[in-house]
Amino acid sequence: MDKIQINGGRQLKGEVLISGAKNAALPLIASSILVDGVSTFENVPRLMDISSIQMLLEDLGALCEFKGHTFTVNASGIDKIEAEYELVRKMRASILVLGPLVARFGRAKVSMPGGCAIGARPVNMHLSGLEALGATISIAGGYIEATAKGGLTGNEIYFDIPTVTGTENLMMAAVLAKGQTKLRNAAREPEIVCLADALNRMGANITGAGTPIIIIEGVSRLHGANCRVIPDRIETGTFMVAAAATMGDVLIRDCIPDHLGGVINKLRATGAIVDAFEDRIHIKGSEIIKNIDIKTLPYPGFPTDMQAQFMALMTIAQGNSVIHESIFENRFIHANELLRMGADIKISGGNIANVRGVSHLQGAPVMASDLRASASLVIAALIAQGTTVISRVYHMDRGYESIEKKFEGLGADIKRISS
Predict the structure, then answer these.
(1) Which single residue of 19, 104, 294, 295 has CA 20 to 30 Å from 315?
(2) Which pathway does it operate in (predicted)?
């Protein structure tokens, strides 16, 4: 397996371009199942997860073409309603094919999903929502089977807690349901809005995306459309934190600052200078990094996907910081790797990290445990004294396009070691 080697101590300087958002691209590509024809998606990042969903769609019978950053799907030839374990186990987002398959074909059989080891992330709200729309659900042998012989029927669905993939799955299922569906306490992430906009371009009738109540008026069919993936707000945030941590001076282009209000405010509180424009962010790090407290919350709160990166930053901040992870359990695995680099972190109650800033980190061999943990280790390595080698970087390849090349372009001493 590949590794990343970083010699720390260099300030990041220059410009970096942000790729399309993986978490927006995956549901958009899954939505192509709803169309008996061709759908085209632009600004799609070239990532392992995109390759995984391409293989899944092709196994179902769709024709896919990925040229540059344009992904085209012809779903007219889909002749299979089973998403098999070997294809689904690599990526939790594979559950997103469940709703579209049931909506279009009246039946689906999808393996229970796999993915990062950062908590259970159950799919019970996906299933109860499909039942509310009239589907019959059974689980056996590690597979979810959903059947709606007469098609789905609109209904009112309430989420106990906001769920991004649950909102996306049920929104896709409801677009072809008879009548109106109302999703209450829906997730509000920008990726939800991106999916709703794309579905509307395909002929759906969705209002309220980006608010807690989404209303879907069912239509009889969708048609192909050309849709664009929004910039990756988590990649943007990762480069912002890296610039602040290295006392750098970085211009981040092709991003949407409005999607990162919580991250920008917290970075400013650390002493960084952040200037946000329509589609770019200029950030200059401070020589003195102030400690801050963080609690992860559903959007528009502080994103759980930025928690690990901020923990790396707080390891060298002045004073003590408290990081409260309220979204997922088991999402402090990266703390043990930061300890190997000299960080002072104590975990209490499983979801609260007390971080005492130290004068410096020291390079060490470390291991990534999930996608965002890998990003935190890259940031820690950039500020550490000496050399850090990060193993299991396949996690990082799931969500960051050419990250080592982008950091190298900012002056980092970073290289990939291929096994």
Answers:
(1) 19
(2) Cell wall biogenesis; peptidoglycan biosynthesis
Look-up of token digits 């089977």: 145
Angle (deg, nearest 10), helices 164-174 and 22-31: 20
Sequence-distant (6+) residues with CB within 8 A of 66 are 44, 46, 50, 54, 72
With contact defined as beta carbons under 8 Å apart, do 152 and 102 qualify? yes
Contact 84, 111 (CB under 8 A): yes
- pLDDT single digits (tens) 157-194: 999 999 999 999 999 999 999 999 999 999 999 999 99
∠ CA 195-263-367, nearest 5°, is 90
Q: Is beta strand 320-324 parallel, antiparallel or unpaired with respect to 294-295?
A: parallel
Alpha helices in 61-97 (DSSP H): 85-88
The yes-or-no verdict on residue 12 having pLDDT over 90 is: yes
92 is in an annotated binding site: yes
Model confidence pLDDT, tens digit, residues 341-360: 999 999 999 899 999 999 99
Question: What is Dmax (Cα atoms) for the chain?
Answer: 65
> What CA–CA distances, in Å, run from 53 to 73, 86, 245, 323, 415?
11, 12, 34, 33, 28
φ, ψ at 317 (rounded to 5°): -80, 160
Q: Read out DSSP for 162-213?
A: --HHHHHHHHHHHTTSBSEEEEES----HHHHHHHHHHHHTT-EEE-TTSSE
Q: Tell me if 232 is assigned to a ligand binding site.
A: no
Among the options 116, 194, 227, 255, which is catalytic?
Answer: 116
79 is in an annotated binding site: no
Res 372: pLDDT: 85
| pLDDT band at residue 119 using 50, 70 and 90 as cut-offs | very low
> For residue 233, what is the DSSP state?
H
Asked if 116 is an active-site residue, the reply is yes
Query: d(Cα 353, Cα 376) in Å, to the nearest integer?
Result: 15
Burial code (b: 16+ CB inside 10 Å, e: under 16) for 54-68 equals bebbeebebebebee
* Partners of residue 7 on adjacent β-strands: 387, 413
336 is in an annotated binding site: no
- Residues in CB range of 117: below 8 A, 6 or more apart: 330, 333, 369, 370
What domains, with CATH codes, occur in the chain?
3-19+231-417 (3.65.10.10), 22-228 (3.65.10.10)
266 annotated as ligand-binding: no
User: Which conformational region is residue 63 in: left (phi greater than 0), alpha (psi within -120 to 50 degrees), or beta?
Assistant: beta
Indicate whether 121 pLDDT > 80.
no
